[in-house]
Design goal:
homodimer, globular, mainly alpha, DNA-binding, disordered N terminus, two-stranded antiparallel ribbon
DNA sequence: TCCTAAAGGACTGTTTTCAGTCCAAAGTGT
DNA sequence: ACACTTTGGACTGAAAACAGTCCTTTAGGA
């Protein structure tokens, strides 16, 4: 049962529940006595959409966050369906949509599978305006969790594999330019959270980064100084590998300020 | 269409997705080459269960977190269903379950509605053992976001309503003892996050607190020194209202250590 | 007293999602 | 060349979830 509605994958941003939840309050009649009281944002949607949409969004994020790199193979459908807690039929609908949108390529037969496209999908410029509240919320939350992750990573007793992983992510982001930069950048930041050893922190960083990506998609892709960003990445990685927590924190805060002022610039 | 399976509300803990996600990795065959690589925990369930279960869990949390206090009225079914993004039929199934579990009371007719029970539900001692990884994860993440919330709250330019709200929550938690303490305590901590002005932080604190509650349900309810906790609460509120960010942070960190060592004590 | 509005309660038909089964393609190894 | 295995592809019937409609209860006001 293939859906008739052709979903515009690019537009299917679908705010990761709770994000803009606070804004949903205003319901038309009378200001809710106080912004606090009983409910705040606990009366938010229990789920982000139907299984089909959620599955599309989820897989798309794993690609946009660089979790699955181009040419990498996704797990077999049966396996992936189970891991995502969704039926294979639903998963297949989602994969089909992503395939026809150009994000995935499918090969049949033994040793076949679903592969992430190497060709980057043409970015449709998203003209919807930036929501200032969402921008500030994302930047603020990010400024809390990412430096914390860096500090923890620096303090952690890192395994050889962990160190190698950080360096791999670093060199991959350095090596890529413009097209394909974003996912590698995201991957690097998530890698730091992984080193922190906190599963919740990893989730939080990944989710927040996804929201940030959606915001960045709304502004023209002007020459962010990639060289500068790469230097900062190197500083952060270096501090972490040295075990210098304060330096890691400082470098991270500094690095985040770049993105922050870039985005804030488009609010004024 | 009432479900035949009678759900044990108390046991329906249903880890808030991603929480213990990392643990889900181990699949039996061979160690995943490295704990990093491609997937980490992005291959987690897209949804926490079916709509019915998720709705139950969600409403239950709003009660356990003190968002809806005893004798308070929930929004009308039609409204609540829309806010939760679920059909009224599903919502009614969930409400029915919570009602027969003793959490809710329903009155029909005009000016009727669904009310939170004043009688506290008898706590079924949950014997399932504490998962050390989950404990450490919750405590660590909490130690990151709650002090940050306190700092932001202290730095914020608080409205009169905001100040009043914090004081109300503080006095309510101080006034309650043993039975009914937990939700008010949670409410107080969430209130601080609300003052921070960051919607994401509120969500994060609420969600983490829900996980913490589930852990606390697993250990015997021994005399946590409520007086001491209340003093600490007062210190935190005081520092925030004075606008003394460093003091607010210090007081929060100190306060969290109490719960942390209580829980860690049950791991050894 | 009776009407009305606001709430919960109950039913119906449709769409989505699911678990399970079987088919088709394409490598691997004998 | 052939069998085998791993993968995607397609179908079916059942269950869940939905939107929409109508009924019932109950308090307040004309």
């Amino acid at each position: 049962m293939v859906s008739f509605v052709t979903i515009d994958i690019h537009a299917a941003t679908m705010k990761t529940a709770g994000a803009t939840g606070a804004a949903t309050c205003a319901e038309g009649d009378a200001v809710p006595d106080s912004p606090f009281g009983s409910s705040f944002s606990m009366l938010r949607p229990v789920r982000g959409g139907n299984a089909f949409e959620e599955t599309i969004e989820h897989i798309l994020q794993t690609i946009k966050l660089g979790i699955f790199a181009p040419s990498e193979k996704l797990p077999p459908e049966r396996e992936l369906a189970e891991q995502l807690g969704v039926s294979r039929a639903t998963l297949r609908d989602a994969l089909g949509e992503l395939q026809s949108a150009g994000y995935l390529e499918v090969r049949r037969g033994r040793y076949g599978g679903t592969y992430v496209s190497t060709a980057t999908v043409q970015r449709t410029p998203d003209d919807s305006p930036l929501d200032p509240a969402e921008v500030e919320d994302v930047l603020l939350f990010r400024a809390i969790i990412e430096p914390a992750a860096a500090v923890l990573a620096a303090k952690a007793d890192l395994s050889a594999a962990a160190r190698r992983h950080l360096q791999t992510c670093l060199s991959e982001v350095s090596a890529s330019s413009a097209n394909g930069y974003r996912p590698r950048d995201a991957r690097f930041h998530i890698a730091i959270a992984e080193l922190s050893g906190s599963a919740s922190l990893v989730s939080a960083v990944a989710e927040t980064r996804a929201r940030l990506n959606d915001l960045l998609d709304r502004i023209p892709l002007l020459a962010t100084n990639l060289d500068h960003a790469n230097e900062q990445h190197a500083d952060i990685a270096d501090a972490i590998l040295r075990g210098d927590a304060p330096a890691a924190e400082r470098a991270t805060v500094e690095h985040l300020e770049g993105t922050a002022s870039l985005l804030r610039g488009f609010l004024a």
